[in-house]
Structure formats: structure tokens, C-alpha cells
Amino acid sequence: MLGQVNQISSLLPFFLQLGLLDLPQEDYHPTERTGPFVTWYQWKTLDFEFPTEEDRQSAIDNEEFIPENNLPLGLEVYKERLFVTMPKWKPGVPATLAVLPRKPKEPSPKLVPYPNWDYHTTESCQGLTSVFRIKADSCGRLWVLDSGQINVTIKPLQVCPPQIFLFDLTTNKLLLRYPLPDDFIKQDSLYSNIAVDIRDGDCIDVHAYLTDVWRYGLVVFSLKSMRSWRITDHLFYPDPLSAAYNVHGLEFEWVDGIFGMALSPYNRKVQDRILYFHPMSSFREFYVKTSVICNETGWNDVKDAFKVMGQSRGKFGHASASGMDRNGVMFFNLVTRDSIGCWDSRKPYKRDNVGILARSTKTLVFPNDLRVDEEERQSVWVLSNRLPFYLYRELNKKDINFRIMSAYADEAIRGTICDPDVKHYDTFRSYPDGEDCY
């Protein structure tokens, strides 16, 4: 009997690693708040759940894992799971996509590669190379945008074509792998963001929108026809007046084009929706009807289809990722203001109608990615990662460098100018005519 007990005890770590057994433990209750946002996860440096400690040490010895070179860039939340991406901008990133529980058991856990280690250890383009952004859809699938590009901070190397991977979130099995056509890969292209357009629960007639931030293009992919087309417009380009950045005294210049995207709620009456977008190096928002860009052969015939949204956000109005909830409220990260902003789409786009939901020189140093989840009561999720310091200096290993936080959308905007119930005397007046350089 004693031998059987010892044998079971020796298998406990194996069962725990597979998730077949949970030991009783107290729930983790985060205490850090930034306005309405609660910090769920925070790391000084990232670590991974290797199969064994020997595998981890071997990866370190072979420089396949260099902890300080790993940076979380993208996030997504689906039901009880949270997904994080780590693009291979520097050597030593062992896995480029990982999963965590939505409700944390500890503040700084090791990351579990998704869907498994095999997708991250193959040297072929059948596996994941360097993932930037991801999007979970209402059909229970995870859309993964793999840039196929490594060593971006040293000498960019396109080792695989940019690809879309589509995973079933119930089985974690691959449903689709779609490499972009060769003529979509321009010199120095970098596909960095993805939005997914699903309407009325139709899981087949779906379009995905991909942004080429360095060569200023928008690719539309049709799941139904398994075709894609690349769109260009002058509004995709960076604004030279917005190319200078200053983040806590670190000055640099970026000429990043179209990046952030947000889809309006689907309007069944007109069977259309609006794609809001902005270049990273810009203080303005733009928009286009999705009926235009989803027309593979006719989009270029629609004059002035891409339009400017009202007033600029003002100097240092750089926005990274954005998203819109079912109520038509847009949320976005203001990277040079250490802030999370918002806008109620029922009101004109002008500075007086752009709200600030949270600001912090500690927890929101370069808020990079943002997602609005699909829960019945929606939450806004934000990832901050001090990206410029990772790129141009070194991150302080003693500081908390990466955070993932969230707030309920309705709670975050309550009482602000982004609340549909809040109206000022000039809420619906357009800004005065005249120059609006910033």
C-alpha cells in the first residue's frame, strides 16, 4: 500500500503540469488600480513553462531563451483564457504565442506556449514564426497574424511569408493556414495588426483586415472565397508632423503607417459597418465603409471612400491599438500621454469629445495593445510594455515592465464625455473651421 502511495506522489507534478489536477489554493486578488482599470498580470521579465527544468536550462545555455529579449506585444481574451504574443524582435524568444487563465492564480506566472511547444520549435513555415497581433471571433476561433519576420531590431529578416493561422478554440486544432501572396510582401513590409468582421453569426462569410504598418497597405482576406487583395490609400501614410515621439525623455522618430483599427457595430438596416483606422505616426482618425473595401474589384472605383474624422487629437495624440464596444464607444491607447482614451461615436470627433479614462506615469508607460472582449458585459483589456525602452535602451529588471489590466466598458466611461448619457452644450457642434495642423 505504501508503495502505491509513493508511486502516486511521484506522478503529482506530471498531473499538475497537464492540468489534470488542481491543488487547493487561495484566489489571487490584485490590488493595483489605474483609474477604473485593475492590473491582473505584471512581470519584470517573462518566463515560460518548459516541459522540464532541464529543457529550460538547456534553452538558456544555447541562447534559445534569453529572458530580457522577450517582450509581450499583443493580447486577446476569450472566455476563460487570455492569450499573449511575443514577436521575435530579438534572439532568444522560445515561443511567440502563449496562453494564461483569464482569472490569474498568481501575478507573474510562466507563459504556456499555444497551442503547444511543437508549433514553436519547428523550423518550417508550417509552425509559428513571429506573431504580432491576434483576434478571437464570436465563432470560437483564434485568428493569428504571423509576420514571418524576425530580428526586427537588428536586421529584419523575412524567413516566412506573412500568414494567417486560424485555430479552433474548443479543440486547439489548426483549421487554416493562409500565406499572403508574394506580391503583397513589399520590401520592408511588416504586417502588424488584424481585425475580424463577422456578421449575424455567419462563420463562413467572414473578412479579416490586416495592416502593413511599414509599407502602408491594408489587406482584406475573405474566408469564404479564400482570396485576399491589397488596398492602398494616401491616408494610410504617416504624418511627418507626427513622426517625433517623446516617452519619458526618450526621444525617437517613427514613420509608422496604418496600424490601429476598430469596427463599428453591424448595422442590419444598411448591412454595413465602419472601419475606423489610424496610422501610428498620426494625430488623426480616419474611416471607410467595409462594403467598399470588401469589394475586391471595385474598391478603387469609389472616389473619396477613405475619409478624415473631424478634428485631430492634438499634439502628442499618437494612438496605438483601438477597439469599439457593442454600444459604439471607441477605446484607444495614447502612447505618448501614458493614457487610455475614448470616444462616443454618436458625437463629432473633436478634442472636447475625446475622453481620458486612465492616466499613469507608472502603470501606463507605452500602453501598446487593447482589446474589447465579447462577453455579455464587455471589458476593455490593455497591455502596457515600455516598448521604446526595450528597443533603444534596456529594461530595468528590477522594475515591473509589463502589465495586463482591464475595466468594464460601461463602468469605465460612466460620467465621462464618452458616456452616451453625458452631453455638454456644444457636444454635437463641429469644431470651428480653420487650420487644424495638430
SSE blueprint:
Elements: H1 2-17, E1 33-34, E2 37-43, H2 53-61, E3 74-78, E4 81-85, E5 97-101, E6 112-113, H3 118-121, E7 131-136, E8 141-146, E9 149-150, E10 157-158, E11 163-168, E12 174-179, E13 191-197, E14 207-212, E15 217-222, E16 227-231, E17 244-247, E18 250-253, E19 258-263, E20 274-279, E21 285-289, H4 290-293, E22 307-309, E23 319-324, E24 329-334, E25 339-344, E26 354-359, E27 367-372, E28 379-384, H5 387-392, E29 402-408, H6 409-413
Helix/sheet category: mainly beta
The spatial strand order of the largest sheet comes to 1-2-29-28-27
In whole angstroms, how far apart are the ends?
78 Å
How would a crystallographer describe the biggest sheet?
5 strands, antiparallel
* Cα-atom radius of gyration: 22 Å
Low-confidence stretches: 1-21
Secondary structure: number of strands = 29
Q: Work out the helicity level.
A: 10-25%
Number of DSSP helical runs: 6
